[in-house]
Amino acid sequence: MSDLDIDSLYPLSDAQIAQFRRDGFIKLKDVLSPAALAHFGQAITRLTIELNTQQRPLEERSTYDKAFLQVMNLWEHSPLVGRFVMGQRLGRLAAQLLEVNGVRLYHDQSLYKEPSGGITPAHADQYYWPLDSDRTITAWIPLQAVPEDMGPLGFYARSQSVEFGRDLGISDESEEKISANMARHGFEFCSGAFELGEVSFHLGWTFHKAGANRSALPRSVMTIIYMDAAMRLVPALNAIQANDAAQWCPGVQPGELAASRKNPVVYAR
């Protein structure tokens, strides 16, 4: 792989695909080079700062807003970031792990946990998404190494089939109730530092959370959310899902293919 190559094949084994199918997440080393992360990361960071609308000091924010600064669909604001989000290396990995023939973009999202930023409470992403199957996956892409004190993402292994907690958004309540339920049923919480170039992938229904950022630097992370290219919308279960449908799949009606102008096919076999 050349320094900036984001399209080449990552050698994923059958055992790793089986591991993901079992655990609902996987961490993969050396997915992106330091040079690629620095090159594209500069643009991602610049846009995150420019487009961020959160101006309140940390002590005045909710638990959700203390967790991170977030900016969505950076790919629409920069051809360079668009090139990164449409990269074949990550898109192919998403399709292989989901065991589907292709993936569309649902949306991208930068997540910058500021110094002294709070925990990211336990939750499952797909609570927010009005989609008709569980074939959704998030690539969590740190733009630098993430030691323990920065609050790396951690996952409850094999929790993707658990129904309890799927109706809880990110909140103090979700942290308390989901964490307690995971502990009660013996789900292993897998957490640890991310090396530079390491990327994790997790299913939409896999429960996960992150610690506070106790370091003096921001924890700079880009995420790309992919879905099966054959995904369809379903009727929204709540106002949050209705807003998600309108924002990320504009003009698409329930029952239709989630293929708006904002949902290009990133990778197809």
From TrEMBL:
User: What does UniProt list as this organism's lineage?
Assistant: Bacteria, Pseudomonadati, Pseudomonadota, Betaproteobacteria, Burkholderiales
Q: Name the chain's protein.
A: Phytanoyl-CoA dioxygenase family protein
Q: Which organism is it from?
A: Ideonella paludis
PANTHER family associated with the record: PHYTANOYL-COA DIOXYGENASE, PHYTANOYL-COA DIOXYGENASE DOMAIN CONTAINING 1
Could you confirm whether the keyword Oxidoreductase appears in this record?
Answer: yes
Any one GO MF term held by the record is:
dioxygenase activity
Coiled coil location:
none
> Which InterPro entries does the entry link to?
Phytyl_CoA_dOase-like
Q: Would the keyword tRNA processing turn up in this protein's UniProt record?
A: no
Keywords, in A-Z order: Dioxygenase, Oxidoreductase
